[in-house]
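Entry type: protein chain
Record version: 2
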Amino acid sequence: MSRTVVVGAGLGGLSAAVHLAAAGREVVVVEAREEPGGCCGTDTAGPYTFDIGPSVLTMPGVLAATFGAAGEELDRWLPLRRLDPSYRLCFDDGSHLDVRAGEEAMIEEVRAVCGPAEADRYRRFRRLVERMFRLEWPAFIDADMTGPGALARPLLLLRLAAMGGLRRLDRLAAAYLTDERLIKAHTFQALYVGLSPERALGMYAVIAYMDTVGGVYYPERGGMHAVPVAMAGLLEKLGATIRYGTRAVRVTADGEGVSGVRLDTGELLPARHVVVAADRLAAQTMLPPAARDWRLRRPRLSPSCLVLHVGLEREPPGQAHHTLHFGRGWRETFAALERGRPQPDPSLLVTCPGDGTLSVLEPAPNLCGADWDRLRPRLEERLLARVAALGYGDHGTAARLVIDPRDWRRRGHTAGTPFALDHRFTQTAWFRPSGRAPRVPGLHFAGMYTAPGVGVPPVLISGRLAAHRILEDPR
């Protein structure tokens, strides 16, 4: 009964399991799929294997700390390289801006593209987001938000407000920057948290910090899926058990709290603690009634995406790893998404990792109100035409895979969005669904649906926080 069962071998579940196993706890991970990864998984078309989850890895220190908890060096398990440029940003006027590694290199890039006066303004903006990051990281991101005391931080909120953190993100950026291209470069990241720059709070400038200052990294081998594969390998070394192809159907509880996890085989795994690291809304049916969270009464979900994966016959020369092609519209595209409609002229994120594959992501409405049986043919045709017009079709197509919100739903994502709840103020920090169930002792949560939220570093942190609560629990 000292066992902990982790439901889901995504990054959040694997993080929780590593921290627990490294502390000597007995851990069993139950995963419905036949491989680790969850959202950070793979799919195939012909001889090609595609990463179908995140393509951006920031704040590698969080991942290194996960391996470090077990006394292991990240480089031994998963060598990473820093991308330079992190992104190539292509604008509708034909200009482009490379997001460069290193402060002086980036300032020189801004000077060359936007002029010396804007470079000086950028330097001041960069200092601002650095200060915001240093304030927010320990207080709101790398912190346990399961108690009401997490909300009572008036001095920190006042300091954040003084920096502009409670203003809208687009207005905060425009208070420092005047070149629209540079403003877009530091506000498009609002989509990562499911909001437009007009609706996201200025505090989310820290995402731009993670990208443009902290840097973007990528595994030397195996693509992004190498991250969960390495974590699963570490778990096996630590003696934990991972049961693939096994679905959890119910978390059981008695008068003292969690008692185990019932599997689809009928087997009951007794457990003193359980970490549910899965789509929180989809998992509601497996939880005890007392585990319901009032924060999920009216969930606001992020938009989804339409993704084209292509196996190339030839690698495109001189291609950046990540290229963002901005559409002609800006505010109009976000407004359309907020109304549950396709963007009229979407911005596209093209990922070309150098392994013969290419992926193109278009933000798109989720299944709440959008008829994807009708939308899919038209939007797929438009996306293919846009990709061809940008020149990517010149390199030959040997295989193709298209994923729309209906496919995301089949993969277990509520409303067909792999981005969970959006990060409006009422779904942030303490207001996000809790990482533990107060009325069911021993039941904890990890992943995108709980704090800190969406993204690889926040999800890894959520798993660590769940593990630390368990290790501190006297049960």
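Comment: Residues 116-141 form the longest helix (26 residues).
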